[in-house]
Specification:
By secondary structure, the protein is an alpha/beta fold. It has helices at about 10-20, 35-45, 65-70, 85-90, 115-125, 140, 155-165, 180-200, 205-225, 230-235, 235-250, 255-260, 265-270, 280-295, 300-310, 315-320, and strands at about 5, 25-30, 60, 75, 100-105, 130-135, 145-150, 170-175. An 8-stranded mixed β-sheet has the order 3-2-1-4-5-6-7-8, sandwiched between helices.
Length: about 325
């Protein structure tokens, strides 16, 4: 049995904590919200972020990040990307030296354009960082539906430790060494899901969706390889697998945001009152800036950025994509 801490009790963090607990580990989960801690400990549910699911009765919730991390041999961060740095910084003094730190957050930091493992490595330099990503809706993981993900690290032992800790009869983790590729796939697929949602909101049909997914993968691969990723990683679970799920699944928050935007609802109204974060909106800004910094053409990312932040109509953005200069498919 491994002593585990999960930092972040949104839907994804809760699903991972429940998984670890049902795998026989001693798990404490940190939640920012008092009501989440109370309902997790009293009724073994997360009514705010993952309603309708019974959680492991051995899972413990804490409001103190130090309490959650006390003695933890495996630490998992599943916070929204835009708060990861601040939370990792506040947790750093309580993370056991050498303990693998699994980053399940997906995104690119707006200010620095750093990937999430880079943020964690900067704030917790005495840790060994592992990226966890792949096609995985939290509600299906907690319902014990078959799921496959990737755990990537430059440290083979840390990746193996994470693989063994998370894997079960319904949750399969594959190891990888390409951290950049796994992270780029996990972050950019959310932007592509917004794009496909916009097309669906416009009523453009399955042909358009297939084109956006395929060309979206080409853009993800283009930026990933420029940053040092392997193209094959983007064709795997953390790239193509997660892309297909997020762009087509009815449970996708990012796709649902895009659908409403495509129907003409202003972005601020779409986001108002949403309990959960749509990472694709945040990542659209940072991906746009990162592509510009690296000199990489990403027309779909550019189009999403124009629609979300530059007031271009969704239909005009799609039209601009279709009338770009003709070119060969392969770079």
């Amino acid at each position: 049995m491994t002593r585990c801490a999960v930092i972040g009790a949104g839907a994804w963090g809760t699903a991972l904590a429940d998984l670890l607990s049902r795998n026989g580990h001693d798990v404490r989960i940190w939640a920012y919200e008092w009501d989440v801690v109370e309902t997790l400990n009293r009724s073994h549910q997360n009514r705010r972020f993952l309603p309708g699911h019974e959680l492991s009765d051995t899972l413990q919730a804490c409001n103190g990040i130090d309490d959650a991390l006390m003695g933890a041999e495996l630490v998992t961060f599943a916070t929204p990307s835009h708060v990861l740095r601040a939370i990792a910084r506040s947790a750093a003094d309580y993370v056991r030296p050498g303990a693998p730190v699994v980053i399940a957050s997906k995104g690119i930091e707006s200010e620095t354009l750093a990937l999430m493992t880079g943020v964690a490595a900067e704030e917790i330099p005495h840790s060994t960082v592992v990226a966890l990503s792949g096609p995985s809706f939290a509600s299906e993981v907690i319902a014990q539906q078959p799921t496959a993900v990737v755990v990537a690290s430059s440290d083979a032992e840390a990746a193996l430790f994470a693989q063994k800790s998370f894997s079960s009869t319904h949750f399969r983790a594959y190891t990888h060494t390409d951290v950049i590729g796994v992270e780029i796939g996990g972050s950019l697929k959310n932007v592509m899901a917004v794009a496909t949602g916009i097309a669906d909101g416009l009523g453009l049909g399955f042909n358009a969706r297939a084109a956006l997914i395929t060309r979206g993968l080409a853009e993800m691969t283009r930026l990933g390889t420029r940053l040092g990723a392997e193209a094959s990683t983007l064709a795997g679970l953390a790239g193509l697998g997660d892309l297909v799920l997020t762009c087509t699944g009815s449970l996708s928050r990012n796709r649902s945001v895009g659908v409403e935007v495509g129907k003409g609802v202003p972005l601020d109204q779409v986001l108002a009152g949403r309990e959960t974060v749509a990472e694709g909106v945040i990542t659209a800004r940072s991906a746009h800036a990162l592509a510009a910094r690296e000199g990489v053409q990403m027309p779909i990312v550019d189009a999403v950025h124009r629609v979300l932040f530059e007031h271009q109509s969704a239909r005009d953005a799609i039209g601009a994509l279709m009338t770009r200069e003709l070119r060969a498919e392969a770079d």
